[in-house]
C-alpha cells in the first residue's frame, strides 16, 4: 500500500531549520498520524510523501511557499500598550489573540517599548525553509468517519 488520498499515515519525523536546529521531532513519542490529501500537514511534505510505502525514509527540503508561507509584513504591527488592558507585564515572546477583519489572529510580542508594543501575526515558521527526515511507519485506509471529518482519528477512534 502506498500513500495516496484518503490514506492514514503514521510516521516518525524530525524537522530542522537550515541552520540544523531541531524545530520538532517525534523521537521518543508515538508516530504522528495524518490523513493524506486533507491538508493535515504542510503541502510540501504531503507532496514529498505521495506514493511512498511503509518503511520508506524520506528527506525533503520544503521552501516557505510550500510550508508556512512567506513573512507578510502587514501582519507585523506596532500597537499602543493600552491595547493590552489588564495585562501588567508584557514581554517578548508572549502570545495573544487579536481580533481582525478576518476574525481572530494569534500574535506574538516581538518588541516592547514604553508605550508601544510590536506584534507579529505570522506563523512562527513563516519565511523558513524546513528540512524533514521522515520514516513512514504504517499506512491504512481512512474510515468513512475520518474522511467525513477530514482528519485521522487515533487509537480508539474519535478524539476531539
UniProtKB/TrEMBL annotation:
SUPFAM superfamilies, per the entry: FKBP-like (SSF54534)
Presence of keyword NAD: no
PPIase FKBP-type domain boundaries: 6-95
Xref: PROSITE patterns: FKBP_PPIASE
Chemical reaction(s) catalysed: [protein]-peptidylproline (omega=180) = [protein]-peptidylproline (omega=0)
Classification via InterPro entries: PPIase_dom_sf, PPIase_FKBP_dom
Top EC group: isomerase
Record-level GO BP terms: protein refolding
GO molecular function, one term: peptidyl-prolyl cis-trans isomerase activity
Known function: Also involved in hydrogenase metallocenter assembly, probably by participating in the nickel insertion step. This function in hydrogenase biosynthesis requires chaperone activity and the presence of the metal-binding domain, but not PPIase activity.
Family designation: Belongs to the FKBP-type PPIase family.
The protein, known as: Peptidyl-prolyl cis-trans isomerase
Species: Pleionea litopenaei
Record lineage: Bacteria, Pseudomonadati, Pseudomonadota, Gammaproteobacteria, Oceanospirillales
Amino acid at each position: 500500500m502506498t500513500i495516496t488520498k484518503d490514506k492514514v499515515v503514521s510516521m516518525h519525523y524530525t524537522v530542522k531549520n537550515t541552520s540544523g536546529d531541531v524545530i520538532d521531532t517525534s523521537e521518543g513519542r508515538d508516530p504522528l498520524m495524518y490523513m493524506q490529501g486533507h491538508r493535515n500537514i504542510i503541502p510540501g511534505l504531503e507532496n514529498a510523501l505521495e506514493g511512498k510505502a511503509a518503511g520508506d525514509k524520506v528527506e525533503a527540503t520544503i521552501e516557505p511557499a510550500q510550508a508556512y508561507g512567506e513573512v507578510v509584513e502587514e501582519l507585523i504591527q506596532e500597537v499602543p500598550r493600552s491595547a493590552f488592558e489588564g495585562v501588567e507585564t508584557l514581554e517578548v515572546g508572549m502570545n495573544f489573540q487579536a481580533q481582525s477583519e478576518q476574525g481572530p489572529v494569534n500574535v506574538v510580542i516581538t518588541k516592547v517599548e514604553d508605550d508601544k508594543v510590536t506584534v507579529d501575526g505570522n506563523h512562527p515558521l513563516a519565511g523558513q525553509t524546513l528540512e524533514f527526515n521522515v520514516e513512514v511507519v504504517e499506512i491504512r485506509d481512512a474510515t468513512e468517519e475520518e474522511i467525513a471529518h477530514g482528519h485521522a482519528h487515533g487509537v480508539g477512534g474519535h478524539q476531539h
